[in-house]
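Record type: monomer structure entry
Structure origin: computed from sequence
Chain ID: A
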Amino acid sequence: MSVKVNELTKKYGEQNAVDAVTFEAHKGEVLGFLGPNGAGKTTTMKIITCFIPQTAGTATVCGYDTDEEPMKVRECIGYLPEHNPLYKDMYVREYLAFVAGLHKLENKKKRISEMIEMTGLGREQKKLIGALSKGYRQRVGLAQAMLHDPEVLILDEPTSGLDPNQLVDIRSLIKEIGKSKTVIFSTHIMQEVQAICDRVLIINQGKLVANDSIDSLRQRVSGETVVTVQFLEKIGIAQLQNIPDTLRIEALPGNQWQIISHKKHDIRPKIFKFAVQNGLTLIEMRQDTYSVEDVFRRVTSKE
């Protein structure tokens, strides 16, 4: 595995910023790291990247302990912090050459050109970083994080400040990188999580409260299944209550109905059978699920 965190704890005085957090991240996986502001996401990322020490617990990256071999860990990691630290008085290509020198890369020019093309910096490469928009500065930060071809990418709010077109490009890039590397990234954009992530970690008040796929989390927080149906014919609620395993029924505009059942029952076959037996024309039937926003609110609102 690429990243392993065990009982990781960080205290500031009496406050636990990170409280006994345990998780693993594997190669070929994009891991979304979610939580309210102040939950401990950035602190956890800073510990994994050796920026700050933990109070207790362990963190290893590619088999190297962050306490015992921090330089080895840094060689394996590409890091884009929440507040992107760039030398604004340097040109884009000049800055990337400087970073490549720090990593002692061979064939620097070729690698820099690859990163400029990959992150869409071609038209901006001869500009001063200070003259770039926030979105393009974010791209420069991504380029420097990936420049030395690390095994693990830690990205803290990587799409902050990007316009809608840039968002699509960077999301696609992160997803593509995640096929061959380990990517951990934090975000507050729930659509981004759904579009990119293989698995989600949710941290709240320093504690890890969820670690699963989005679909599994939806099932976990919901005790019910909602099926929305529409019939061609007019029908009353009394008839629909004859469908087996129905908990309740709610009317919607346009002759649509929501049929709610316990999550252990898939009532769609029973709805179809009901329509056939009663000579009804079923125009639409879909099973609705909790959105990522619903999951996030439900998980982080629990004490």
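Annotation 1: The chain has eleven helices and 14 strands.
Annotation 2: The mean pLDDT is 89.
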